[in-house]
Amino acid sequence: MASRALVYFLFASAFAVVTVHCNSEGDALNAWKNNLSDPNGILQSWDPTIVNPCTWLHITCNSENSVTRVDLGSAGLQGPLVPELGVLRNLQYLQVYNNNITGSIPAEIGNLTNLISLDLYLNQLSGHIPSFLGNLKSLMFLRLNNNNLTGSIPIGFSQLILYGNLRIMNVANNSLAGTVHPTKSTRDALYALRRAVKDPLGVLKSWDPTLVDPCTWFHVTCDSDNRVTRLDLGNGKLSGKLVPELGKLERLQYLELYMNDLVGPMPKELGGLKSLVSLDLYHNNLTGSIPSSLSNLSNLKFLRLNSNRLVGRIPRQLTKLGNLKILDVSNNDLCGTFPTSGSFSKFTEESFVNNPRLEGPELMGFVRYNVGGDCK
Ligand SMILES: *[C@@H]1O[C@H](CO)[C@@H](O)[C@H](O)[C@H]1NC(C)=O
Ligand SMILES: *[C@@H]1O[C@H](CO)[C@@H](O)[C@H](O)[C@H]1NC(C)=O
Ligand SMILES: *[C@@H]1O[C@H](CO)[C@@H](O)[C@H](O)[C@H]1NC(C)=O
Ligand SMILES: *[C@@H]1O[C@H](CO)[C@@H](O)[C@H](O)[C@H]1NC(C)=O
Ligand SMILES: *[C@@H]1O[C@H](CO)[C@@H](O)[C@H](O)[C@H]1NC(C)=O
Ligand SMILES: *[C@@H]1O[C@H](CO)[C@@H](O)[C@H](O)[C@H]1NC(C)=O
Ligand SMILES: *[C@@H]1O[C@H](CO)[C@@H](O)[C@H](O)[C@H]1NC(C)=O
Fold it and tell me: Where in the numbering of this chain does the Disease resistance R13L4/SHOC-2-like LRR domain appear (predicted)?
């Protein structure tokens, strides 16, 4: 008797779950189906008289028969998204890319708080991106590119990138305000720097990590092609490390990061800044040696690395920097001798003072101080 009662109870509660949960989810999907034209019969298995949608093709459920995936990419569907989709509260993947979806994105999509991936790219969606999408804290992939969306990118998206899980956001190829499609490497470089440094004065506050034009950010200057030419971040109380991604800013002419609290080594990737005219990193706490890759900066005129904690030899390759006008490596812990040939022939000892282990100029044509010397 008791066991029969228990079985009955389990069945009843399971049935209750099924009706409450899944009929409403099935109803929502069916409402969407009724608004879509489906020339390829992709939604044929979506039969609303079945007790839940978990057996329908292109639908995946969890163990509680609640929908977690809708996979309808490249299905030839035409018509709108419907607000009813907002009831699919366990949905993690909404894949509806490359169809002919029209109309606007319903604000109710912002209720799908478990959503990991929202892929609506390559459709004909129009209207604004609902600001409610900024609620999607679980979101990792947001691809809305190649639609006809207008308006601006919701402010909340920058929070999702900086503090949430959002890893990929593509809103390109729409008609959104403030997007100029900066190159991927520019975005990578600037966001990497922003993430790497502490910024107690809020110097980088305007560096909004959505695709908004970085040329409108404070302390960033661009040329007429919207490529970054200057970073003016001197005296900004920035602390942290320089990031190798900075080396991707191919048009950068001025890298001004003097008088901050930067630590760690100078990334060798800075040698990739082939347009660089001025490298000002003086008055920080940089360590490690001067990368020999800087000898590739053929446009460099100003190299000021003074007042750091740089060690090792001054790379001889720097003498080939034909445009170098000003060199200051004073107040470090450099060692060995300093070169006197090439562009270095015009620098006086003043460029090198206060490096207690630096032995003096190398003796051209004579035995070099350097030879075999132990200098690290
Ligand atoms: C969109 O609709 C047009 C016209 O019906 C069709 O030719 C095209 O293949 C559709 N595009 C997609 C991605 O389904
Ligand atoms: C879906 O279809 C119904 C019935 O035709 C209609 O009332 C509703 O406005 C449609 N929904 C959208 C988002 O177009
Ligand atoms: C979903 O979102 C809309 C608008 O953001 C809201 O009004 C509604 O109460 C939410 N809940 C459900 C279950 O749709
Ligand atoms: C979307 O934009 C494309 C080109 O930008 C245009 O050809 C198409 O008519 C637009 N579609 C809608 C539905 O507005
Ligand atoms: C924008 O559209 C063009 C042409 O369809 C495509 O080649 C490009 O990859 C798209 N850009 C992005 C970022 O999706
Ligand atoms: C470098 O580090 C020292 C010791 O930690 C600190 O006193 C000094 O203020 C720092 N200098 C700069 C420019 O950050
Ligand atoms: C300088 O650039 C050349 C060509 O881009 C590269 O092969 C070389 O490794 C670079 N030199 C240094 C010291 O990084």
Answer: 232-330
